Amino acid sequence: MTTLPRIADIAVIGGGAYGLSVALWLRRLRPDLSVLLLDRSDFAGNETGRCGAGFRVQWGAAGNIRLCQDSLPSYENFAEEFGYPEGIEFKQDGYLILAHGEEQLDQLRRNIALQSRFGVDSSLLTVEEAARLAPGLNLSGVVGGSFCARDGSLSPFRVLDGFHRAAARAGVLIRHGVKVDSVEPFSSAFRLSAGGEAIEAGRVVVATDTRIPQLLGSLGIDIPVQPYPNQAFVTEPLPPRLGPCVVSFAHEMFLNQTARGSVVVVASDRRRALGADAQPTADLFPRAAARAIDLLPALGTARLLRSWGGLYSITPDMLAVLGETALPGLFVALSGAKGFMTAPAAGRLLAQLVDGQAVPDWFARLSPARFASGEELEKEPAIV
Amino acid sequence: MSRARVVVVGAGPAGMMAAAQAARLGCAVVLVDEAPRPGGQIHRQPPPSLAGGAVSAAARPEAERKRRLFDRFARHAGAIDHRPGTSVTAIYGLDRILIADETSSRLIRADALVVATGLHERVVPVPGWTLPGVVTAGALQALLKGGRVRAGDRIALAGAGPLPLVAAAQMVEAGATVPVVALLRPPWSPLWPGLLRDPAALWAGRGVLSEGWRWLSVLRRAGVPVLTRHVALSVSGDGAAERLVIARHDGRGRPVPGTERRFAADTVAFNHGFTANSELARMAGAETRFDPRRGGWLPVRDGDGATSVPGLFVAGDAGGFAGGLAAACDGAVVGAAAAGWALHRDAGRFAAQAAADRAERARHWTFQAALAASWELPRDIHELVTPATVVCRCEGVTRARIDRAVADGHDGLNGLKRNTRAGMGSCGGRSCLRTLAALAGPRGEGEAVNARPGIRPVTLAALANRVSDESVGS
Asked: What's the whole-model pTM score?
């Protein structure tokens, strides 16, 4: 580990998509300020690197729709916007959400209505239309679906590499392998303790997702988030079998054939308890492999490449938490399990907020203050 | 009531002996192996239809070792539930080991688990190493032993240690022309100082030495040039290997200008030592240490093969290269320890039963410790990996891309892997992780990559078809 500076204008804790994006935008907005990013692991060592690599604007809560909608142009123009010519493997073949039963279809209909209010070009599909988009799927029991052609599959590793390089070029000082043990107010600033070293920072952005309460709980800051262990596996590269990404609530499953041909399968288990143990469990394969084959029969002959576990950050409304805490100068960036999809916009807008600039009302409503306000929360219904 | 169960992974010399020993001592033994027949890589057996045939004078010692091993195994084979064509997909704990074959999977429990998964070959990539016709020296042997197939007509070999020499001699006996064997240094040169200091080691290794002498004689009789202190620079050809270019090196692995030589060949075989197959031990949580000579990231183990995880044992070359003879003895020692653990939670309980194997193992280890120095690669050997050379062939990652990631600060192996995708492909990083670690700099070899469930490719249909554990090892 190279030496840490003792002082920074702004410290960002967490080197996932949120941390990197906000750090990058802070330096873009304020090249006069020093920005230090501290990450406890190596490159892509946490949840962004474990996600299902899908992108969709098709959500059922305004905050999620807006964040994804605002992020999409950044992903569509990633090479130019972030100076990353090698590309992010964006396979923009759309995203298909299947409805097994009228109740699910009604929900999708309501979501599409909300999406269209923001100009999202999503539509309700008949079973026949879904079959044409994804001919390999087993659609028995499916009554319809929701589809958006601009959604798709993209590489979290490439995106993080692009953010990482752009942040470094912009002058963010990035230090991996540094675990911050505590954050404390100190005169009008903050003191971070990391491996026995103290760092003083004028403002702090904590972007450690499910681990935020561990760092801020002792300050009396209550960010309601629970870790939920999810599991995924990936096959060896296959010939094209699946155009769009597919979600099936009935299968508790997300399928994504990436630009490289591998099929990523994210298998949720509603019965699994909340908790921070993300290790894959022994029941994953008999359950998830069977469901995956039921959904896409061609997967039967596909070979497993590897499996892994990761943590969804579950908030009361399944929306991100982005904003200033009760301690002025201390900000949180918590993804609500959609960090990869929303990072470009979340990072940019949060950086504006940290810099004291105005942000849109819809973004301001993602502030942690919403949980204490007593107002009714707008809840996201469209989670796998 | 179920009997104490020892699960052994790998049916090479170490695994066969561990299984036989544990069965002899009263355990229920499950022996899981990917190959259709036991023997491992070293004693790979052809299908019955291809068995038999004459054995040359030089090949006789190996055939004799194989016969002794199989005899010992056969005495207890009736008590061993041998599962060929089966691999371990995941270890979620010793009580939850996921094994799979082509059609089904099952979760089995072990009171003691012996990982005897051997090792695989290490190759330092040079331009052209991904051309068709370029193989490892061990692959030449595997084709010959397992399928009675000679990989080519004109076979050039290069690398380190004794394997390229032995493989070359076997190819000569199989009727191939070998235009050259190019070695980084004479495999016998690091041997002598150690052995002369330690006559016991010399004595222990006399069998291996005389066998090596016989193979060298085969090469000499055939007029095969053995060029030591030479380094492979490239393989080239129009769509397939047609020639190997080598040069003398300066002792550190850098070519001496003006000494290049080209050899026409339809097949080029490399071997730069070995990497222990330690993934399963690591997945089960075993601590590792890095040993560049004996196989990279090795599980830390004691003389009984016990690792940092209670009940998890490592036997044979999976714990670090020591050769087939040592592996067989080690298997017998570790099998006794695993049986002691499984039956009595006491790895030392049957130590006396394996005393003779332990003593013989010590002699082989002494000899092999001296030999291991021949796999110490020259310091600058990776300078020959040009920017355009593909390092990870599964994902097509070049050295230039790896250098860029290292320059960006991703110099830990796991971060480097995620940044470049090198090591993420179907081979599980077997062909590139050592190179990746060497290119990463000082931190590279310090951490092993994460071993995740799914290390051996199995079909999703087999995983979905999980059968109950009742029939296993009962």
From this structure: 0.94
